[in-house]
Amino acid sequence: MPEPYARDVKTSPRAAVDLTPFRDAAARFASGVTVAAAAHRGMHHAITATAFASLSLEPPMVLLALDRAGQLIGLVRDSGHVGLSVLSAEQETIGRRASTRGRALQPLVDEAPTTTAVTGAPLLLGALAWFDCEVESISEHGDHAIIVGRVVAAASTDGEPLLYFARRYHRLGPQLGDAAVKR
Question: Is 1 exposed, middle or buried (0-12, 13-18, 19+ CB in 10 A)?
Fold first, then answer.
């Protein structure tokens, strides 16, 4: 069996990249909007997260990046689970509320009504889709932690997603073709 891909990491210092053009470039990547939530010892917290991706089908896994200085990462570490809810276009208010910094941990997720599936992680009712995850791994990179979650339950419904582009919320526009992508 071939060796897993690896490369030597270059450790020589480079000039810092100016953060303004970096942020402007990153804002040009359109993404769906998720709310990541966790609960531990009677305390809950939820945040808006756009750094989310499907990672693997076998086994089913997702990837989420969280601010290392935020409150949610502590609950995710302590509980060993995270719930990810994909917001519909009708849930913009929830996305805005969950993106407010500095909110205290609460006995309930106050952004919207929730349910649970397998792990006990909060999942938003009315979400376009959700993923209930056990934490597979957490690694720290820069000011964020990357969580790999093993999906233990998932569900979806029809509807239009809430999108985030150029630091603003958007809805889908007209479809650009008739054919679906075939796999």
Answer: exposed
Distance between CA atoms of 91 and 95, rounded to whole angstroms?
7
Residue 36 belongs to domain with CATH number: 2.30.110.10
| Domain assignment present for 171 | no
> Cis omega before residue 59 (within 30°)?
yes
Question: Distance (Å, rounded) from C-alpha 61 to C-alpha 108?
Answer: 26
The tokens for 130 are 């959700």
Q: Which of 25, 155, 36 is nearest to 85 (CA)?
A: 36
Residue 68 lies in a domain: yes
The parent domain of residue 145 ranges over 31-165
For the segment 93-107, the average pLDDT, to the nearest whole number, is: 85
Counted domains in the chain: 1
CA-CA-CA-CA torsion sign (48, 108, 143, 154): negative
* Contact (Cβ atoms closer than 8 angstroms) between residue 72 and residue 39: no
The pLDDT tens digits of the residues spanning 113-172 come to: 899 999 999 999 999 999 999 999 999 999 999 999 999 999 999 999 999 999 999 998
Q: What is the pLDDT of residues 10-29, one digit of tens each?
A: 666 777 888 999 899 889 98
Regarding pTM above 0.85, the answer is yes
